[in-house]
């Protein structure tokens, strides 16, 4: 299940994931031209750092988070700005996506907080429902690679990632990366909403 109380974390200031800087892997992805300004959904937007960074570069961004306090802090950052960026509370497991016309979805460490396979599968299905056909989802996920650590993001295997996502989206790229501010291993998973359903696995030689 998800973290028991994200609001408690924001109230206490225990926010190791909130670095105050845009995620370097997202910056690399955007500046490479892999995605150009378009409607974007950021899931687990927190206090809005990544969403605002994208909006400053011409993206039309909706940032959502399960924490009311996170959303309020993100909205406060927008005071005095005229960017195309807005924030809303959204529980990815219980509510329909806020829209179904996004061309890009981003999450940094949201997918991996769910322990149960059916929750991760539902998360992926919700992303697919939010994307237009051909739309992209970039997810940064805690990895089982690297040395043991006492604290840090939940760890998911490549198999767990694939099993959750492949039924809903085409996996374009799954590679080893790193949460650079925490020096912990991650998966960078890039997926695309299919324009047609995946075909069944077949026996060899048939």
Question: How many angstroms does the end-to-end distance come to?
Answer: 42 Å
* Major sheet: arrangement of strands: 3-2-1-4-5-7-6
Helix-and-strand structural type:
alpha/beta
The SSE string, one letter per element, is HHEHEHEEHEHEE
Give a short account of the largest sheet.
Answer: 7 strands, mixed
Strand content: 25-35%
CATH superfamily placement? Vaccinia Virus protein VP39
CATH class: Alpha Beta
Stretches where pLDDT is under 50 for at least 5 consecutive residues are none
Helix content: 25-40%
At CATH level 3, the topology is Rossmann fold
CATH 2nd-level architecture: 3-Layer(aba) Sandwich
Report the C-alpha radius of gyration, rounded. Answer: 17 Å
Number of domains: 1
**Beta-strand segment tally:** 7
Q: Kindly report the average pLDDT value.
A: 90
Sequence-ordered SSE layout with sheet pairings:
Blueprint: H1 6-12, H2 24-31, E1 39-43, H3 49-55, E2 60-65, H4 68-77, E3 85-89, E4 102-108, H5 117-130, E5 131-142, H6 158-165, E6 169-179, E7 184-193
Parallel strand pairs: 1-2, 1-4, 2-3, 4-5
Antiparallel strand pairs: 5-7, 6-7
Helix pairs in contact: 5-6
Task: Describe the overall structure.
This protein has 206 residues and is α/β, with parallel strands linked by helices. The chain has one domain (23-193): 3-Layer(aba) Sandwich (Rossmann fold), CATH 3.40.50. 26% of the residues lie in helices and 27% in strands. A 7-stranded mixed beta sheet has the order 3-2-1-4-5-7-6, sandwiched between helices. β4, α5 and β5 form a beta-alpha-beta unit. The radius of gyration is 17 Å and the shape is globular. It starts with 5 loop residues before the first helix and ends in a 13-residue tail after the last strand.
């Amino acid at each position: 299940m998800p973290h028991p109380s994200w609001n408690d974390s924001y109230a206490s200031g225990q926010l190791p994931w909130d670095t105050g800087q845009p995620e370097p892997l997202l910056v690399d992805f955007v500046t490479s031209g892999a995605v150009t300004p378009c409607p974007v959904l950021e899931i687990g937007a927190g206090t809005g750092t990544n969403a605002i960074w994208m909006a400053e570069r011409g993206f039309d961004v909706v940032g959502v988070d399960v924490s009311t306090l996170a959303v309020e802090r993100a909205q406060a950052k927008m005071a005095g700005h005229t960017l195309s960026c807005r924030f809303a509370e959204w529980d990815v497991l219980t509510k329909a996506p806020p829209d179904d016309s996004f061309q890009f979805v981003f999450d940094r460490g949201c997918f991996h907080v769910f322990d149960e396979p059916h929750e991760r599968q539902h998360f992926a299905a919700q992303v697919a429902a939010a994307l237009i056909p051909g739309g992209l989802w970039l997810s940064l996920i805690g990895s089982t690679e690297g040395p043991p650590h006492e604290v840090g993001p939940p760890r998911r295997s490549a198999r767990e990632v694939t099993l959750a996502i492949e039924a809903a989206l085409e996996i374009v790229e799954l590679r080893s990366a790193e949460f650079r501010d925490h020096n912990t291993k991650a998966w960078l998973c890039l997926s695309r909403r299919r324009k047609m359903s995946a075909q069944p696995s077949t026996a060899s030689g048939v």
